[in-house]
């Protein structure tokens, strides 16, 4: 479901009694050979993300919300030129994200401006969070605001959402990186059958 290999670095910070962390984090890393780093404590998660800079990061929506809030606070406290630069860069990122979500090609002019926006501004935002090396962000265990998925995509990193339950061993439905649709939980994973109860 999440292609990875020994070149990838992961981060484990949810309790290992949490089936999602055990399966998506520990077991998936052992199975694929990706490096799994353990945080020092729940309080050091933001600092450890910046230290590790994982290439694939799974977190619950509350963690993604905290990262987003930290960026907004930083922008609010920044100088006026920095605020304008962020508004310009994230605006370009949102245009690219909108094109990607509607599965339309990104015009070469917009693509070049987005590359410049990443180089000047957005890569610094990613570095502030610790996701500058990330190629995929994964969320689950609770609903996430669709606008939050769009914001991370505007930074240039796809965020996918999945749904499962302990009884299904943390695997149920999963959004594919090439078919992101905010507000949904993707398609059934390989080997999983899903149906809606007729009584609902």
What's a quick, concise take on this entry?
This protein is α/β, with parallel strands linked by helices and 200 residues long. Helices cover 46% and strands 12% of the residues.
Topology overview:
Elements: E1 9-12, H1 19-32, E2 35-38, H2 45-52, E3 56-59, H3 61-77, H4 80-101, H5 108-129, E4 136-139, H6 146-154, E5 159-163, E6 173-174, E7 187-188
Helix pairs in contact: 4-5, 4-6
Oligomer: single chain
Number of distinct helices: 6
Helical coverage, percent range: 40-55%
Q: What is the SS-derived class? A: alpha/beta
The major sheet is characterized as: 5 strands, mixed
What this model shows, in words?
Helix content is 46%, strand content 12%. The protein has 200 residues and is α/β, with parallel strands linked by helices. β1, α1 (19-32) and β2 form a beta-alpha-beta unit. The longest helix is centred in the middle third of the chain and has 22 residues, at 80-101. The two termini are 29 Å apart. The protein is globular, with a radius of gyration of 17 Å. The protein has a 5-stranded mixed sheet with strand order 3-4-5-6-7, with helices on both faces. It has helices at residues 19-32, 45-52, 61-77, 80-101, 108-129, 146-154, and strands at 9-12, 35-38, 56-59, 136-139, 159-163, 173-174, 187-188.
